[in-house]
TrEMBL record:
Keywords on record: ATP-binding, Cytoplasm, Kinase, Nucleotide-binding, Transferase
Name by which UniProt lists this protein: Cytidylate kinase
Residues of the full protein shown: 22 to 239 of 259
Keyword set includes ATP-binding: yes
Reaction catalysed by this enzyme: CMP + ATP = CDP + ADP; dCMP + ATP = dCDP + ADP
Region (Disordered): 172-218
Record EC number: 2.7.4.25
Length: 218
């Protein structure tokens, strides 16, 4: 079967990215960040003036995106991570990601990246619908959550924007609402996923739990 796939899903600020990166490092696996593919489409849509409601045009933009290990590219050119993490791109990513046709294209991009990674030993794949839609056959599925207050605080600290805590909390709540209420692949724990509420847990504790699940599965 090749290497192991570890799916980590959860809302913004649940610790997904940090946990996925650390688990991948400890297991010597690649870390596939599927959110970056939605962000790449969002960035393209802002640059090319494609409306966040134009599903067919957005799906066409998505066809220009590739994911290879930790690198996202558009038309074969690597997109620097910093350009994908601006507040404008974050907000647009959540809006464009509601369209089923665009999701269909990006899910294939993500599966292709996971197949390649599996041949090289495996991957830790993070997103919103990895366990439910992208990789329902992943050996390990984890659903991370944390209280809204804690998630906003983590995000504010992570980006050195403590003064903007309230604004971050509001933007995050809006993204959560869009991500969990959308009809196409809403944010949900997959059947059989291990649910971890990380409120009050340290990064190390969460990482150890996920490593334990990965050991049991391999
Ligand atoms: O994980 P990240 O915050 O980078 O994701 C950006 C946006 O992309 C999310 O708010 C969500 O709308 C969308 N997304 C998604 N499905 C995924 C990963 C991200 O819909 N698997």
């Amino acid at each position: 079967r090749g290497g192991i796939l570890v799916a980590i899903d959860g809302p913004a600020g649940s610790g997904k990215s940090t946990v996925a990166r650390e688990v991948a490092r400890r297991l010597g696996l690649v870390n596939l960040n599927t959110g970056a593919t939605y962000r790449a489409v969002a960035k393209l849509s802002l640059e090319e003036g494609v409306g966040t409601g134009d599903e067919a045009a957005l799906a066409a933009l998505a066809r220009r995106v590739r994911l290879r290990g930790e690198t996202v590219s558009v038309d074969g050119e690597t997109v620097p991570d910093a350009e994908l993490r601006t507040p404008e791109v974050s907000a647009a990513a959540s809006r464009v990601s509601s369209h089923p046709k665009l999701r269909e294209v990006l899910v294939e991009v993500q599966r292709e990246a996971a197949r390649a990674a599996r041949r090289d030993g495996g991957a830790v794949v993070e997103g919103r619908d990895i366990g439910t839609v992208v990789l329902p056959d992943a050996e390990v599925k984890v659903f991370l959550s944390a209280s809204a207050e804690e998630r906003a605080l983590r995000r504010a600290r992570q980006s050195g924007r403590e003064a903007e805590l309230e604004r971050i909390r509001v933007a995050m709540a809006e993204r959560d609402r869009q991500d969990s209420e959308r009809e196409a692949s809403p944010l949900r724990a997959a059947p059989g996923a291990e649910r971890l509420d990380t409120t009050g847990m340290s990064l190390d504790e969460v990482v150890e739990r996920v490593l334990g699940l990965a050991r049991e599965a391999s």
